[in-house]
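[09:14] KT: can someone run the structure on this one? pasting the chain below
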Amino acid sequence: MIGQTLVEKGYVVPLHAHDNQQLTFVTDGVWRFKLEGKTVDVGPNEMIFIPANVPHTAEALETLVAYDVFTPPRQDWIDGDDTYLRAK
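[09:31] RB: done, structure tokens below
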């Protein structure tokens, strides 16, 4: 499953984990990920791999565009049961 994300500066994805492996490729802007006791900034033309079931969070340091690739596909995205992503 591939999804394009358009995110405004300052948005925070709350701490969560999922059964899917995730690869995030940033084309514009900067995501700051926190996982496994580390902080990783991912900028244009960079990517991060997040193994399945690893709790993580992300903060948009700049307005950004990124592509998220999941395997297997995210059933919560398919079902629309991912409201935690839109919580303010």
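[09:33] KT: thanks! The chain has one domain: 2-82.
[09:34] RB: yep, looked fine to me
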